[in-house]
Write a structure and sequence with these properties.
The protein has 149 residues and is mainly alpha-helical. The chain has 7 helices and no strands. 67% of the residues lie in helices and 0% in strands. The mean pLDDT is 83.
Length: 149
């Protein structure tokens, strides 16, 4: 709802697609990007804290290793939309839950194979189903005010 139903979301999408055009409309591109990076860092920290406090019984430096790769894959697989990313996260979460279910079952599946399952699923989905997922045009491109690029 925030991305598609508010003025802030419109500004955010404009800055992501064409920052020069957003700048000509009076949107402060640097401010929007700074706020978005700050919010994303805050949410990533909250996610890491929730993971190490609620899910993993004790803190280990490698408790969250590889989860960022799966998160980026979910955004790409979701075609850079909030709904698609949500559904992709549900799919990858199901793969993570499947490792828990198979690990405690009657089948003798090695724990190394179970640990690899979410990552193998992620790579297979990216290879088979992504197709032409296009990122926002200005994603990762620094904005220089007054440049013609």
């Amino acid at each position: 709802w925030i991305f598609y139903g508010t003025t802030w979301g419109l500004h955010l999408r404009a800055v992501g697609e064409h920052p020069a055009a957003a700048d000509t409309l009076g949107i402060n591109v640097y401010k929007v990007r700074y706020i978005c990076v700050t919010i994303s860092g805050l949410l990533a920290g909250l996610g890491g804290a929730a993971m190490t406090l609620a899910i993993v019984p004790q803190f280990m430096p490698t408790a969250i290793s590889g989860q960022g790769f799966i998160a980026i894959a979910a955004v790409i697989f979701g075609k850079w939309t909030p709904h698609g990313g949500y559904l992709a996260c549900l799919l990858f979460g199901f793969a993570q839950a499947l490792t828990v279910v198979l690990g405690g079952g009657r089948f003798a599946v090695p724990s190394e194979i179970l640990a690899m399952l979410p990552y193998i699923l992620t790579v297979l989905i990216l290879i088979l189903f992504v197709g032409r997922a296009s990122a926002p045009k200005a994603n990762g491109v620094p904005y220089n005010k007054g440049s013609r690029v």
